[in-house]
Jasmonic acid-amido synthetase JAR1 (Trapa natans), 569 residues
Amino acid sequence: MPEVNVERVIEEFEAMTRDAGRVQQETLRRILEENRDTEYLVSLGLNGRTDERTFKARVPIVTHSDLAHYIQRIADGDPNPILTGKPITVISLSSGTTQGKPKYVPFNEELVDSTMQIFRTSYAFRNREYPIGLGKALQFVYGSKQFKTKGGLNAGTATTNVFRSSKYKSTMRSMQFQCCSPDEVIFGPDFHQSLYCHLLCGLLFRDEVQFISSTFAHSIIHAFRTFEQVWEELCNDIRTGVLTCRITVPSIRATLSKLLKPDPQLADLISDKCKQLVNWYGLIPTLFPNVKYVYGIMTGSMEPYLAKMRHYAGDLPLMSADYGSSEGWIGANVNPRLPPEEAVFAVLPNIGFFEFIPLRESHGGVKLDPVGLTEVKVGEEYEILITTFAGLYRYRLGDVVKVVGFHNSTPELRFICRRNLLLTINIDKNTEKDLQLAVESAVKVLAEEKLEVVDFTSHVDLTTDPGHYVIFWEINGEPSVDALRESCSVLDRSFVDAGYVSSRKVNAIGALELRVVRKGTFQLILDHYLGLGAAGSQFKTPRCVGPSNAKVLQILCSNVVRSCFSTAY
Ligand code: AMP
């Protein structure tokens, strides 16, 4: 596979985005033509029409639950063209953090192609600014468990389906991304053992590592938090050339014993470096002297991990990866110099047909029609609808984005949050973003005691009268009683939504409760999701745990070690 021609990829992207409106029409035409004989489109009376007007008039806006029974039939082995002309042979499991259980979504080669296109595009822009030399990538990537659906289709998370595809491997090679870890580690059956071995392989190739990445920032943070616990064991393996007995998967042991040779010098070097670090600040550049940047999705629900990421990364640039979902990709980060807080995603107009529901108008009760890709307005927020080559038509992804500018004629989007409300009891409305901002304010109180929140989530407790918000925190130490109380009141005060404030003032919503959970509780939650088939690299901590997510709620509630109520009102 020849090297990616960075200039050519950029040129193609520029040409396509200069003509985004026409490319969108052409993309819609191709999607509708390829799938004209599907049961779904036929039943809507499209009659082979491929123009936008007919499409919008006949095809309804849907959510996953509207399509679930079609997808289930595909998964059960129905061979008819149901949603796509070409048969779907693989099913993706979306992480399903919100509902507590993974959702099935169709996966096909076109999704692999658009994934590769988006990877190449952002790589080209990134490499122009931060060229990487020949070497390796320390990638914390994990294949989730794969299984067969009732109809015999392979099912796994979207990232796993992509990592397994041959196109992924050749695209990575053409971008000179050679992962430090062998496939046995990436696709190992045990997340913890794979993580340990990723770290070990990274250390063995420490001089060659050019960048560090994962799909979502959470797994990078999780990996280095784990490093803090296991570094001595890792050094011991390197010193003796014998893999720790905690690695029990035979295929991993066999491959790693070929890589591992006794190297006391390297072990001493790493050990000395670790001992010199103060509170692990700058761990990444210290361990990997030739790393150019850290790369992964750092926006949205990953933002709370940025402070820790900067702590580990020292002066290295952090680069936020592209925007997409198991259902389909949306935009590439073509401005790699922007810090993650300001990252924007330029929509690729040929990978799907995109529509945008304006949110300002729909708040006022007047529901406006969605607008097209080139009709969005800068400064406005929208809910995004996608129509893909994988059988989803006018599908509500559930994400809120803000248009912050245009790249040629395609919009640049900032991810705002998931659309669904997390916390609501009566007239109050708080989203994931509101929770994130409240936690951001309250952690400053802990920071005064040099403590940090490892992870957090929330819950609406209606067992009390009135109901109240509960925030769960895992903290990396023991805060004073005063700091905890103050944090709790800051959290309560930081929900500034008028419905919440007025309800709190008249006690229609009770005082906010902060519950501190035992160290390792969020690891148990991660383990729970991995058990359900989630992939470590695609994991997002659920930011609100509803009653339907009983197991996670039980994990949280049974690990509470301290709690207090706000005195803010
Ligand atoms: P999943 O398909 O389950 O892994 O999750 C897809 C969801 O992750 C999207 O709908 C977004 O809510 C979120 N997501 C994906 N990419 C980004 C990004 N670059 N920034 C923020 N959130 C993202």
